Backbone:
């Protein structure tokens, strides 16, 4: 998966349109329930565990920030 594909996942779960992956989810129009649903979907899809605190930082609570967090978790898990 790459950033554009991840953006489509965000769009599907949060019912938003990602025009810039750096834009915080709240600025894209995602409410808290959809944001939590996204976090759960990401954890299930990628078999990672993201700390809920990631959503408190607007830089991380964006499609790009969440994708980075997923990649970091996957790298840490595999040791790559």
Residues:
């Amino acid at each position: 998966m790459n950033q554009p594909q991840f953006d489509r996942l965000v769009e599907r779960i949060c019912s938003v349109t990602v025009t810039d992956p750096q834009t915080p989810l709240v600025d894209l129009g995602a409410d808290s329930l959809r944001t939590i649903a996204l976090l759960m979907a990401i954890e299930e899809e990628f078999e990672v565990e993201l700390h809920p605190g990631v959503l408190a930082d607007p830089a991380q609570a964006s499609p790009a920030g969440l994708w980075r967090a997923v990649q970091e978790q996957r790298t840490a898990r595999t040791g790559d």
